[in-house]
Structure to design on (414 residues):
């Protein structure tokens, strides 16, 4: 059963029927999916959710599909890990990592948004789908399009990481490598969406696609025992994820499924591309576009589509925006790996490094329950770690070599 009512403009509140529309036709602001919360409230209990399979579809009534989900059926319900050793290193006593680096099938949170977008593409009758991407979305669309039997056109900046390029091509998608940054790629993709009758997940399917990110918020709340954290730190590119986790928490409060304690939202970006955190630091929601230059390529969106909403969520929640250098990003990746055994990509390095800064600066106090949203897998950005780790000597297969060259280095005593 579907609880979807219509689309509504986030700014002027004009409503539209459920159709593949890129933005409000009057003011070009993003469109929100509106649900019949009254009916949801009377029909659904959080206890109903508990017995369902451990995937994002356990919250299907809060997602915009009107038919049975057939694409990305195994996606979501990734681990929420209580991170004692990382907490100790950062000086936080109740710290959690939501690890979407192990999402199914392509190891990032984008699997969630694509599962919703392609389900909707099927409902609208599209046989071809596509996206503009900073990498992870490319992987997710290519994989799930293959599994769903769609043709796919994927537009990316030509200089993305090799792992993300191969991790798109392998699924047989048509990869369009564009000489330009993401914002230029995205403009081209919008033109393509205007001209061809295709479902472009982050253009004409954007309002549905973005709803998939809400499931990160539902899962965090359920995995905390149906309560909300005091703080949540979220990496931002276009700004949709943080905005949708905020929407998810609001919905859960309104449904009475969690106590209505306030949550502070902290947005994380790389210093080499930080239009949203710059605005937040200045206390404004006005975004000044930037030209990205950072190793965190998955977050390198200089003109973020949901930047205004993301800044508003941060400021109105009493949170903050913070950014970190490429060097700090690598330190963040290593810290999470060395303390918790979780290898994240550059975006996760941003989140961990920003968490460290926020705790040091006193924005986040040690006793407050705090969640770090880790959105992607380190095996997709190997260059960030390559050459920066202790690679050790290559030795002959001799015990003497081992004892001389390896034991001493690791300062092991016999
Ligand atoms: C790994 C990762 N984390 C976070 C984000 C940010 O998502 P959003 O564009 O919704 O802000 C992206 C976006 O591509 C991403 O790939
Ligand atoms: Zn409008």
């Amino acid at each position: 059963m579907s609880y979807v009512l219509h689309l509504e403009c986030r700014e002027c509140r004009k409503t539209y029927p459920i159709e593949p529309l890129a933005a409000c036709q009057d003011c070009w602001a993003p469109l929100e999916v509106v649900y019949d919360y009254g009916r949801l409230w009377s029909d659904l209990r959080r206890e109903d959710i508990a017995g369902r399979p451990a995937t994002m579809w356990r919250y299907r009534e809060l997602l915009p599909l009107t038919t049975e989900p057939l694409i990305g059926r195994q996606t979501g319900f990734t681990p929420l890990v209580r991170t004692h050793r990382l907490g100790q290193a950062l000086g936080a006593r109740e710290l959690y990592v939501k690890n979407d680096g192990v999402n199914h099938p392509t190891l990032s949170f984008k699997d969630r948004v694509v599962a919703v977008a392609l389900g909707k593409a099927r409902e609208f009758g599209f046989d071809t789908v596509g996206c503009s991407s900073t990498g992870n979305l490319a992987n997710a669309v290519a994989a799930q399009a293959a599994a769903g039997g769609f043709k796919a056109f994927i537009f990316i900046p030509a200089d993305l990481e090799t792992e993300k390029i191969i991790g798109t091509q392998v699924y047989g998608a048509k990869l369009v490598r564009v000489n330009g940054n993401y914002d230029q790629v995205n403009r081209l993709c919008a033109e393509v969406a205007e001209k061809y009758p295709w479902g472009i997940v982050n253009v004409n399917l954007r309002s549905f696609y973005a709803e998939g990110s809400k499931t990160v918020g539902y899962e965090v709340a359920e995995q905390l025992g149906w309560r909300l954290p005091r703080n949540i730190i979220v990496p931002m590119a276009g700004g949709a994820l943080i905005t949708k986790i905020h929407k998810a928490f609001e919905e859960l409060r309104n449904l009475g499924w969690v106590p209505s304690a306030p949550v502070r939202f902290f947005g994380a970006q790389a210093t080499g591309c930080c239009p949203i955190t710059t605005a937040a630091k200045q206390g404004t929601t006005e975004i000044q576009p930037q030209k990205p230059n950072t190793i965190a390529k998955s977050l390198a969106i200089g003109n973020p589509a949901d930047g205004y909403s993301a800044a508003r969520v941060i400021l109105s929640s009493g949170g903050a925006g913070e950014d970190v250098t490429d060097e700090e990003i690598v330190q963040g990746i290593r810290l999470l790996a060395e303390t918790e055994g979780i290898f994240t990509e550059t975006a996760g390095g941003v989140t961990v490094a920003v968490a460290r800064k926020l705790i040091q600066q006193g924005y986040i106090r040690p006793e407050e329950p705090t969640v770090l949203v880790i959105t992607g897998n380190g095996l997709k950005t190997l260059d960030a770690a390559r050459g920066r780790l202790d690679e050790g000597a290559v030795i002959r297969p001799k015990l003497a070599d081992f004892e001389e060259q390896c034991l001493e280095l690791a300062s092991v005593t016999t």
